[in-house]
Each structure stands twice: as C-alpha cells, then as structure tokens.
C-alpha cells in the first residue's frame, strides 16, 4: 500500500439562477436550457492546483459523514436538477509533502483531522459549518444566504482554520481567480460549506494484473483501493477485474 495525493477544500453554493446568468447571459431562463454548470481550475503561486470538483447543478450539499466526530461534505443532483441551487467542491491538491509524516496512512490522518475540525465547528451534532463566501474572502462577518443542504442543520461558523494554513491561502487565491473567470461568482449570495475532504482515496493498494502484490487472491478494486475516482471509473474497474478473474479461472481470455 502507498500514500497518494488527493484534494481538500470547501463546497461553494450559489443560487442556480445566478450561475445560469453568468454562464448563459441574456439567454438565461430560456426554455430548453438546462441548469448551467461550470468547471474551473487555477494554479496558486505555490504551484498547487486549485479546481472545482463534482459540480452539481440544481443539487444539494450533503453531509457525507460515515462515523462519529467527522463532517465531510459532498454534493448531489437529483435527476430533475431543480433544487434552485448549484454547488461544487473548490479543492486544492494535497500531496505526501502536506501530510506531515511519511506514514502510509498519513493522508487518512489528515482527512480525519480536518473532518473533526469541521464537525466541531458545526456544533458537534452533525451540523454542517457554513460561511458566507465573501465573509471568508474578505475576513468580515456577513449573513448566510439561503441554500439547500441535506443534513440535520446548517451552522453559521468561521471556516478559517479548518484547512492547513497554506492550503487555505491557496483556496482563497483560487476563489479570487474563479471570480475573474466567472464574473458574479464572488457574490454575497455564495455560501461555503466545510469540509470537502473525500475527493479520492489517500492511499492506493498496489496490484499487478488486478491482484494484490502482497496478498494472493485479493483484488483491490475501485475508489477506496485507489484505482478509480467516481461512479463510472469505479464500475469499469470492477467489471475489468471481474472479467480478469473469470478469464483466469476459465482459462479463457475475457478482455
Ligand atoms: C453524496 C455523494 C455524491 C456523489 N456524486 C457523484 C457523482 O455525481 N458522480 C460520480 O462519479 N461520483 C459521485 N460520488 C462518488 C461515488 O459514489 C464513488 O466514487 C463510487 O461510489 C465509488 O465506487 P466504489 O465501488 O469504489 O465504492 P462504493 O460505491 O463505496 O462501494 C463499496 C461497497 O463496499 C461495501 N463495504 C464497505 N465495507 C465493507 C465490508 N467490510 N464488508 C462488506 N462490504 C463492505 C459498502 O457498503 C459499499 O456498498 C458521490 C459520492 C457521494 C457520497
């Protein structure tokens, strides 16, 4: 098993109407136009990549906790994409240099630390901590805008201090650049939610011909094992591995 880079940050949410106006201009609201999406990327002076992740038009912010004392967030759009809100992870790449130690599980430890901070900022009862986007950027107190989050509660909190300081600075830099490429993105109506920390696995279980290099008969597959990211690539990885196993035991090539 080896440590691998992943990405951490916040989830930003805007009214869908605002994103439609930015992306479609005068055509916004025309029948037949789907809720607009976006894809953003920037490179901070530190060299770190900052990018939008899992953009969900007409979707919801999701409390994606899988255990006590942790608050990772994610996003999801139902088929109709009609929640009235658009959200996206705004994340910064983190590498083994950011993990603090050379331990193979150091990325998990980092994830746990950030999620515990977000949990506490959210009040300790699975509330999602949230902050006005401009309050975060200008370091001034501003009210929260209305949003759409699937969780017990949304708690107004200062999100500064959840991420490692260098990562937080790079996220601020990235958000400013995104405001330049999408005029209106930096809006009082924007909300940040914390913490977007499960972008991909912080480890990879090494394999050769789909089989673990250390444990024979074990087939590490999909996102958690570090071989895929997202629904489709995980499914494809599973299908390929299954075909390989079928071929191995039937003695036939299956692709
Ligand atoms: C809210 C949310 C929204 C998302 N939206 C998108 C999206 O729009 N597009 C996209 O591409 N991806 C999205 N993802 C990510 C996507 O869900 C994952 O990338 C994908 O499911 C990974 O597939 P997987 O098969 O590797 O793992 P999983 O789907 O997590 O499957 C692992 C399975 O193993 C089972 N399991 C775990 N431990 C054990 C055990 N000890 N014994 C037996 N079974 C066990 C689990 O119950 C689970 O069924 C989203 C994720 C979340 C949480």
Q: Would you give an account of this structure?
A:
The protein has 255 residues and is an alpha+beta fold. The chain folds into two domains: 2-203, no CATH class; 205-250. It is 27% helix and 25% strand. The protein is built from five helices and 14 strands. It has helices spanning 16-24, 106-121, 133-138, 165-181, 231-250, and strands spanning 2-3, 6-15, 41-43, 49-56, 60-63, 73-76, 85-94, 128-132, 149-150, 154-156, 191-196, 203-204, 207-208, 211-212. The strands form four sheets. It has a seven-stranded mixed β-sheet with strand order 3-4-7-2-11-8-10. The longest helix has 20 residues, at 231-250. It starts with a strand and ends in a 5-residue tail after the last helix. The site of flavin-adenine dinucleotide has 13 residues, from strand 6 and helix 5.
């Amino acid at each position: 098993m080896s440590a691998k880079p992943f990405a951490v940050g916040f989830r930003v949410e805007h009214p869908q109407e605002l994103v439609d106006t930015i992306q479609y201009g005068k055509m916004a609201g025309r029948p037949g136009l789907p809720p607009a999406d976006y894809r953003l990327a920037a490179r901070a002076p530190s060299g770190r990549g900052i990018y939008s992740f899992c953009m969900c038009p007409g979707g919801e912010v999701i409390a994606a906790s899988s255990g006590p004392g942790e608050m990772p967030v994610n996003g999801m759009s139902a088929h109709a994409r009609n929640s009235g809100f658009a959200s996206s992870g705004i994340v910064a790449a983190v590498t083994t240099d950011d993990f603090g130690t050379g331990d193979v599980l150091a990325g998990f430890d980092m994830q746990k630390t950030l999620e515990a901070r977000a949990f506490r900022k959210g009040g300790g009862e699975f509330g999602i901590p949230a902050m006005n986007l401009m309050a975060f950027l200008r370091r001034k107190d501003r009210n929260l805008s209305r949003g759409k989050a699937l969780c017990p509660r949304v708690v107004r909190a200062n999100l500064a201090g959840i991420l490692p300081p260098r990562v937080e600075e790079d996220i601020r830099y990235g958000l400013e650049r995104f405001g330049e490429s999408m005029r209106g993105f930096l809006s009082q109506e924007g909300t940040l939610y914390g913490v977007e920390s499960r972008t991909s696995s912080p480890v990879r279980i090494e394999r050769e011909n789909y089989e673990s290099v250390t444990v024979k008969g074990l087939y590490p597959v999909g996102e958690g094992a570090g071989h895929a990211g997202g629904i489709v690539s995980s499914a494809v990885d599973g299908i390929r591995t299954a075909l390989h196993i079928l071929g191995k035991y039937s003695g036939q090539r299956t692709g």
